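CORE FACILITY INTAKE
Project code: CF-77B
Contact: R.S. (postdoc)
Sample description: multi-component assembly, two entities in total
Requested service: structural model of the whole complex
Turnaround: standard
Below are the sequence entries exactly as provided by the requester. Do not edit them.
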Amino acid sequence: MQLKWWKILGVLLVLYSIIAGLLLPVPHLDILNESIRNLYFHVTMWFCMIILMLMSMVQSIRFLSSFDKMRDLKAEALASTGMFIAVLGLTTGMIWAQFTWGAFWVNDPKLNGAAVTMLIYLAYFILRNSIENEDSRARVSAIYNILAFVMMIVFIGILPRMTDSLHPGNGGNPGFGNYDLDSNMRMVFYPAVIGWILIGTWIAQLRFRIKVLEIKKENL
Amino acid sequence: MKSFISTILCCLFMISPAIAQNVEMADIMRSNGKIYVVVAVIAIIFIGLMVYLYRIDKRVNKLEE
């Protein structure tokens, strides 16, 4: 198997977002100052994580309809990569919060929602490891994975919008309005999101392939 | 007269132009070109990590065969 085009595309897009993200003009906003550029790096982590979790859930659903063990392994690899990306998103967010909101952790619905989401996915891995029987492990964790994704959407997509949040685009004001994200920033932000999703998928794919090799070795 | 017009304009377009002039950005770093050093360092680290990822990919390929 050759190096796939989408892997190269992902690397190029993120490389572009690093160069353009640091050099292109950004809106001059109080408090944020230059740290507004964190949008290209911190927020993209969360977008990437959500898409990886979505792909993981799709694999779980497909597992339940086919009982193909490979689908279960793919779901696990995608979820664990998503979890890793979420840890990066959380730590970068904490640093950003310290310098704009004044504390590493503020009582913000989005922050707490993200923390709860990570605990939910942590439970997914604990659940996986606690079931000895392979078939029931795959089945139970697939069902839990679907539930976990729904809970994630509730905790970071819906609940923060119902109350006031320090995050832009929350508190009854969905998405990025013109005020939050100008067209210059969109030109960097969306390629960065796509690039990180592709790289995340690449890492997850490697994890899956190594897992398959491990299983093959065990069965020899 | 000129300042009067700019005041009116600022009021018209809310506060954004007024803020834009007072917000401190890393302009010195940009004007003396040191920002390119930062870009170069981050870009090299990123490229290095991706090359490493590519090499892991190749090794997995080998094992699969």
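Facility notes:
- The helical segments of chain B are 2-12, 16-22, 27-31, 35-64.
- Confidence is low (pLDDT under 50) at residues 7-19 of chain B.
Invoice: internal transfer
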